[in-house]
Fold this protein.
Amino acid sequence: MFAYILRRLLMLIPVLFGISVFIFLIMKMIPGDVVSTILGTEATDEARSQLEKQFGLNLPIYQQYLQWMGGVLTGDFGVSLRTGKPILGDIISRFGLTLELTLLSAFISWIIAIPLGIVAALKRNTSTDFGVRIISLLGVSVPNFALATLLLLVLSLAFSYYPPAGYVSLFEEPMKNLQMMVLPAFVLGTAMAGAVMRMTRSSILEVLRQDFIRTIRAKGASERIVIFNHALKNAMIPILTIIGMQIGTLLGGTVIIEQIFSLPGLGQMVLTAINQRDYPVVQGAVLFIATVFVLINLFVDVLYSYLDPRITYK
Amino acid sequence: MAPILQIKDLQIDVKMDEEVLNVVKNINLEIGKREIYGIVGESGSGKSLTSLAIMGLLASPPLQVSKGEIFFEEDKDLLKLSSRELRKIRGNKISMIFQEPMSALDPLFTIEDQLMESLKFHTKLSKKEMKRACVKIIEKVGIPRPEQIMKEYPHQLSGGMRQRIMIAIAMLCNPKLLIADEPTTALDVTIQAQILDLMKELRDDFETSILMITHDLGVIAETCQRVAVMYAGEIVEETDVVSLFHRPKHPYTKGLLKSMVGDRSDALYSIPGKVPSVEQMPKGCRFVTRCPEAMDICEKVSPDDLEVADNHRCKCWLYQKEMANHV
Amino acid sequence: MKEIIARLKKDKVGIVGVIGVGLVLVLGLFGPWLSPHDSTEMYKEHMLEGPSATYWFGTDEFGRDIFSRVVEGARVSLYVGLISVGIGASLGFVFGLIAGFFQNWIDNLIMRIMDILFAFPDILLALTIVAVLGPNLENTMIAIGIVFTPVFTRTVRAAVIAVKEMEFITSAKAIGVKTHKVIFRHVSPNVLAPFIVQSTLALSGAILTEAALSFLGLGIQPPNPSWGAMLNESRQYMEIAPWIAIFPALFIIVTIFCFNLLGDSLRDLLDPKLK
Amino acid sequence: MKKNWMALLMGIVMATLLLSACSNEGSSNEADADGGSGEAATEQVLKIGNDQEPAGLDPHKVPAHSSIRIYEKIYDSLLTFDEDMKVQPELAEKWEQPDETTYVFTLREGVKFHNGREMTAEDVKYSFERIMDEETASIAKSYFDKVESIEVVSPTEIKFTLSEPYAPFLSYVASTNAAIVAKEVVEENGDLNQAAVGTGPFKLDEWLPDNHVKLSKNEDYYKDGQPKLDGITYLTMKDESARLAAIRTGEVHVTTLSSQSIPLAEKSDGVEIKSYQSTEYSYVGFNVNKEPFNDVKVRQAISLAVDRKEVADVVWKGDAVLSGPIPESMGQWAIDVSQEELYQQNIEKAKELLAEAGYEDGFETVISTASTYTDMVDTAQLLQQQLEAIGIKAEIKQLEWGQYIDTWTNGDHDMLVGRNSSGSDPDRSIGFFFSTDGSANVWGFSDEKIDQLAEEGRTTIDPEKRVEIYNEAQKRVIEQTPNLFLVSPEKFFIVRDSVDNYSPTANEPENFNDVVIME
Amino acid sequence: MSETLLKVEALEKFFPVKAGIFKRTKGYVKAVNDVSFEVKAKETLSLVGESGCGKSTLGRSILRILEPTGGKVLFNDKNILDYSKQDLRKMRRDMQLVFQDPYSSLNPRMTVRELVSEPLYTHFSISKMEADQRVDEILEKVGLPLEHSKRYPHQFSGGQRQRISIARALVLKPKLVVADEPVSALDVSIQAQILKLLVDLQEEFDLTYLFISHDLNVVKHISDRVGVMYLGKIMELADTEALYEEPLHPYTKALLSAVPTSDPLVKKERIILKGDVPSPTDPPSGCPFHQRCPLAEEKCQNVLPEFVQVRPKHWVACHLVEQ
């Protein structure tokens, strides 16, 4: 197991290297650059070249890459070209928010989707099943931003409610933080719920067809035990795969929701940085997100073997 | 002696879309105490469905028992019990083992978990007592080092071991009836011999009746006292094992015995054709399409299940000729 | 195929999906003939009017007919969906087939590249690709296509590996069938099922991704409508002129809904285990 | 049992919802109380819903509006503007001009930096030298190209010597980008993006990007009794619907909204709309090096084809006025453009001009615009429609912001919809954008007459003469149409009723020095 | 019945077991371990053994569907392990494989005609008419109605599918057919049909069978000679009658005794073996069977018995069998 984890971590190296090259090149290829976005309509040639020199943009491209990579490898992600803040610290503090949002929305999607999925599976092809599938599909079908806007509108008009402004972290003011996070997490959660529900339904059905379910029934187990002690645990692996992928996707995919709910998360950071061509920020943040994504996948894989003794990694 | 299990006129139907089709019909049999009773038949003959009906484990819908009675210990009609009452009997007084030991155990739980579960449902023993009972039964089914085995997961065991564990689970609560649905089909011959041996031993020790369901006449010859031959959802012949092998009556049984390859004669024999599907069941005798001795009557009217010799029932017009002439 | 159609007939949910997808396709194909107005024509004296006999779904802030825009949007959204999924699916199919069949260094190379793309957050990947290529509909489709490629590659690869284990592949080899024929005649037709299912589901994903990109100001260029862009533009008017939001939203929901129903049904229909 | 399980689940969901419902109870009560009595609230922190994230806080380096609105409260300059855009004393109590090229400023005494140190003439010298230093890459460097030397006469007196007469000098000194900074702070931090120490009414407490900027009261502010607030919190809310919801529920005190949402805000209880005429104007830039826009007739034809009133009505919901290169809010400098011939929509004449230029059947072109700003995208759409009338078929190309700026600088476009800020001196509006060597002349435009007028405007000190020069220059620019000037929009602040003593003006839209928050 | 068609010499197929961070090879599963035998033209040689004994791997290694790791396979006196890919492909015309599972061994997306004609198109440039004719011929031979040739495999029963499989293998008129458990997935009454078909076809086409099975009854019926495999090795090889009537190896004896009788009145003497087959990753030293052998001696634990001819045409690998 240890060797497996180590091997996966080693495999991370080429992938991360690839990502670093890819993001670096792509940032260079995007039209527009940081200097013109900083100077805007005030740009003069000398100001431009001065800034380029300051940012090291006058160097050959490979040197820029090596310089950046050298820093990253020693834990120095550099400073933002716009704010002058150290990037890594910023990434980590914003990652906290994005991670919380991700986990909270995942949690919301589970408490919606898994019970519904079980119900749909048990009542397969009945009107209950169709009803559940329709509800869960609705969540997937509405673009996030529309649902978010609608929620803000309805809550502010009908209940004169707006989540507290000015983000505080969970550790500073837990209640305030939760109030801020519930709505965005709900919007994201409903979008995830459909896929989780679908997977729960089909894998429960799949498990219920297995021989060992018959054995358990033959032992005299009640349906409750069959479903919750056995079927659900066995169905968890494909569900987990979906969840793992969704969590990974959410890490960088909450941009829109962060923006609408004014949350200073990682997505916002990257988006702003892309717009401002703040290269080291984009590069650092994407590399970070990708690393976390790969680690989450690894974690999910390790979790499989914890859930399923048949899966042993060597 | 009173039978432990008595099936009367059991009929099982399958509901497909709009129509209801019959899959098992006119099942009558009695299993005595300490008896090993065999049901033999090819795949699709309805033998497994019959066993599942006894357990109350038919996948319903689409399957349903549409007629008949199953008496357990003389007075309890299993078909009339509530699901709660039935659960109390399942795994306790009647237990069952299945064909595929590979897939019949929950892969995510240890052997201990799966053994204990049964005890939790049916006894009020303390954890310690339960564990002791588990160790005892594992030893009983011939597995060395029970403590170690109990910590393992099914996939860590060989097929033969798993089938032993299945038997251990089935025997845990000292059942009156053990239903064994093709218990050795997936096993190698040497392991099959071990398992059959074990089952006979357990029958003696626990005084359990066994309903042995198999497609293998060899297994029947080795273990059973009485046999029912099933074809296309019906029992076509029912008698003691010696009569069946030496004095078969039904053309299907005869064909089956003849087609046991290798052992008897050098000429390969096979029953022509194939088992009719549920949708295309013949109106009369269900074997008529493959029967070498078929008569006109066979196509039109289904024969009765009659006693043709002592303790020997057969469902064939050949033995009801007078009646056939009357119809 | 006949059998699938026969079974689909019994699947009521699937039929709803097929009909829905059919209607949307009709809308997309014959849209221009159906719509009473030009989708970009501004009727300035009729700005922000509610649904009426002339403007069935009302008008937007420029006085454009929402119905015509929704109909035109169907074409655009479907176009985006089909082309981008087409790009992602074909790339994924080829890569997955190669990677899964050979399972050697090529597999490793392809899969690592896919890992790289996969580890890139979807929206950000699309965003950067569009930013590099320049924002217009074609580039948006390319971007979404690239975003979808890793998923398809993985799906196809997994299916190929499963199929490769089947005896009929060994059988073909034993007969002496050449490798490329084994891939095309024996492997690829048998990985189509998960591939088709993935495609239907990806279609709705593509429509949503286009909507998300519209929110970020990328995607289709105004004044041409896509449902996502319309919905995004409507956000400011949700309160005073809800019809601007409701109709495109309704069409997105129904379309995605039907594609999902269809995908679900296909999944069930094509799954040999459920036969 | 299954039911219990479901019930538990429903319970969790309900509890979560209740939790948010309870809190909304709290905040709505607060909101109700807002308009009530006339008592000053205990917490005097103004919460502003900020539509854009500041791009840095160094006043010498960052020209973005989103940054200026914040650092203008932290820093002061030597001079400032009044409502008529005339320069007034600020850190400099008074100034003299012994000759055309010499300026002597007398500093206000006892003004302290936020770190407690008193501001002196040395700081002023340092600040201007920092701006003029190439290394700084200051955006204001070009403002002071004509400065020959800076001399500290006494701790409270400083003398600037220019190489030649330069009329805009004082307005540039009044610019926020010429803020007076403390030398030791720059040296300690390298630049002023993280540390901000000025002499302004508010001090920087904290800047968390994409979250908030917190300012607190400068107790030692040189103007007595100001500011009245204890602090200002800028909450970043990029999404308009979020800002609307937040101002409606009282979660923020002040915010900005686009014209589209103004009617909604007007309907809401407890808020007031405050508007002012901005110094911005919307325009279409032509690539005058490229066919067909190299022909002035084509540009004039487009000017005649466009209905500017419609732009004001549709894009700005009527809250915008026609504008030339110098918008109306520039007071004395602006001319009345409504009577200009090229501002009268005349399709016939436009077609004639096009035909003269050889484009009888019109032509195809591309209108580029920034996707970030809805008004630009809307303007582009409207123009596209209007130009169809004279046979010009335009395709719209939305550009992401970074790319837009790039396109703008490289002149890589046909027509480009944009919005300009006219700055504080007409030299910027004319010379900066349209003289041949103007820093922001990205259009490749060159006109001798304009060059000459720009030069005159720069060197003529007499204000009345300058007005005349710039009147002529404006007419010439409009006639040559290097840019198509459209409208100058009103800007809106949506303000809770509880905010007292706040009235935005074009020169200082966000002066919160007198603001008090009432119960 | 004298000419040797196939000669296998010291054939080995080891699968590497990989482990560790860099997936180094940590050992081998010796699925086929030093196996030698001959098959004469037109005879049927059967290999029997329990699951995991390596019989299928052996069959596939002979056909080079799995690449053997050592030894020789002489087909018509030429070592096919030396063949280039191209030569090998040509040679496949003469060596065919029939599979156990009639469900997975036929491409579900091809019709019967496509399936059966594929080998023809692969090996000959042949007109469609000619191909159709040959397909029709073989379909008739294997007893499939011609009108079913446009159907897909799933529309057939297991027995019929096995007929399709056989047709596909025989349409090339091969010399050697390796039949890997061709009837074990079928119902008893169908088994006999297929076996009968195989026997008939052998006579008609002069085929040589290498028949792989775990079912001693089936093997007894159709084989000329039988080899018994255990843990990757052949333990005993003899004429069918000799093997069944006078088995020499203790394992063969146990195996035969474990086969259920077909007469309830006959009570056989049972040899019940202890435990399971050991893992081929870690085979026991000495005789691979010694741990379960009721007669094992000390020598058996340490010394690998040689595979020697102890009687005419009767080979055994056991220390306890005297020559």
Summary: Chain B touches chain E at residues 42-43, 158-161, 188-194, 196-197, 215-222, 224, 241-242, 245-246, 255-257, 259-264, 266, 268-272, 274 (CB under 8 Å). The longest strand of chain B covers residues 19-31. The mean pLDDT of chain B is 86. The domain at 5-93+173-324 of chain B is CATH 3.40.50.300 (Rossmann fold).
